[in-house]
Amino acid sequence: MTCPDLSASAQSSSDRSSIPEDARDVMSEGDIARALRRIGHEVLERNKGSEGLVLLGIPSRGVPLARRLAAGIEQVEGHAVPVGELDITLHRDDLRRNPVRTAHRSRIPDGGIDDKVVVLVDDVLYSGRTIRAALDALSELGRPRAVRLAVLVDRGHRELPIRADHVGKNLPTSSTERVHVRVAEVDGLDVVRISGGDAR
Ligand SMILES: O=P(O)(O)OC[C@H]1O[C@H](OP(=O)(O)OP(=O)(O)O)[C@H](O)[C@@H]1O
Ligand SMILES: O=c1cc[nH]c(=O)[nH]1
């Protein structure tokens, strides 16, 4: 069995291309902040508080979003919620087709994930393949009591039976469009844009 070369200088698909000029804004900095605040409240309500919660961001932009959610929850609850990063690279189902990706180390908070309520956090939910890979990665790390999913944007077009528990914005898209999430920690600004497809 040949192993994919993961050492090459790799960039994620959304880093490789800049946002096309025809892209239009669909969420502003304020919209993103409000959506994250609401999701934080939803997570607490669903979990009846922050007991046993662990937030895991999916690189790249899910990680800063998870940290922001954790900070928002801490503001409400008065104590910190464990937050980490879940790298899914080696669990992707397109690894053989698209092997030029850098594998990162997952960073799991000290208490681990066993018997915890893990909230996966990502920027965009599309085919669902990233989240399938995340569930696969998670199963190697422990056995959470429950796994939930929070995404900033759900753009539809699922190819797997996966749904989000907490959604910042449901964005109807055509399959020829692309959603671009940019966050200050990675990109220097907070915005969600959409490009391609028919002008709406
Ligand atoms: O539901 P899916 O079809 O899997 O698409 C959603 C994923 O696509 C993007 O990741 P990408 O692989 O572009 O890498 P990035 O997070 O580094 O931008 C996005 O960040 C989600 O993780
Ligand atoms: O439109 C899309 C689809 C997948 N991932 C993204 O970041 N945007």
Automatic annotation (TrEMBL):
Motif interval(s): PRPP-binding: 118-130
Annotated stretches, region: Disordered: 1-26
Glycosyltransferase as UniProt keyword: yes
Domain Phosphoribosyltransferase: 33-168
EC main group: transferase
Reactions listed under catalytic activity: UMP + diphosphate = 5-phospho-alpha-D-ribose 1-diphosphate + uracil
Keyword GTP-binding carried by entry: no
Keyword set, alphabetical order: Glycosyltransferase, Transcription, Transcription regulation, Transferase
Enzyme nomenclature, EC number: 2.4.2.9
Compositional bias per record (Low complexity), positions renumbered to this chain: 7-17
Purpose of the protein: Also displays a weak uracil phosphoribosyltransferase activity which is not physiologically significant.
HAMAP family, per the entry: PyrR
NCBIfam families: PRK05205.1-3, PRK05205.1-5
Similarity-based family: Belongs to the purine/pyrimidine phosphoribosyltransferase family. PyrR subfamily.
This protein's name: Bifunctional protein PyrR
Organism: Terrabacter tumescens
